[in-house]
């Protein structure tokens, strides 16, 4: 019995001390916050802390190469959620892909717009959405990733921005919270 308790304790401590898996895949850079983007996000579009397969790579020119959003790992059928409160600007198909776009409430003039694809929409144009509300599910086809993913974009008017800038730092942190001892207290 004592040996089992010791083994359980060793396994538990090892699990707690092990570094968490990386949030960003190899080659996907951690976000650099954009000061022009308010941190209004309250939820990831998919999962609790999805792996970023490909990060934001702003183009050098309007039509130049780059990646105008981030790709988040997600299995087909995974619920896709609004990251912040807003109004659905578009829900339909573009070039054969399901797309949902949401204009974010209170983010300036013109409003910030998030876009999610490939998504089978469960919302309609003009519908108000709350942070974390399901707006659709990940499509089985239409992803430009090697594995199924959701491409999450952000723009203000015609300028593309890093969508990870919408999220507060505590949502970007990877790994469990740990309580530290408070010395000198009763």
Properties at a glance:
single chain; mainly beta; Glucose Permease (Domain IIA); three-stranded antiparallel beta sheet; 2 helices; 29% strand
Provide the CATH topology of the domain at 39-58 and 65-172.
Answer: Glucose Permease (Domain IIA)
Overall mean confidence score, pLDDT: 82
- Listing every helix as H and every strand as E from the N terminus to the C terminus, the arrangement reads HEEEEEEEEEEEH
Going by helix content, strand content and strand pairing, the class is mainly beta
CATH superfamily of the domain at 39-58 and 65-172: Glucose Permease (Domain IIA)
Helix fraction by DSSP (H/I, runs of at least 4): 10-25%
- Helical segment count: 2
Q: Main beta sheet: strand number and arrangement?
A: 8 strands, antiparallel
Which consecutive residue ranges, at least 5 long each, have pLDDT under 50?
15-21
* Assigned CATH architecture of the domain at 39-58 and 65-172: Distorted Sandwich
Number of strands: 11
Oligomer: single chain
Shape verdict:
globular
What is the CA-atom radius of gyration, in angstroms? 19 Å
Strand residue content: 25-35%
Look at the structure and give the CATH class of the domain at 39-58 and 65-172.
Mainly Beta
**Ends: how far apart?**
32 Å
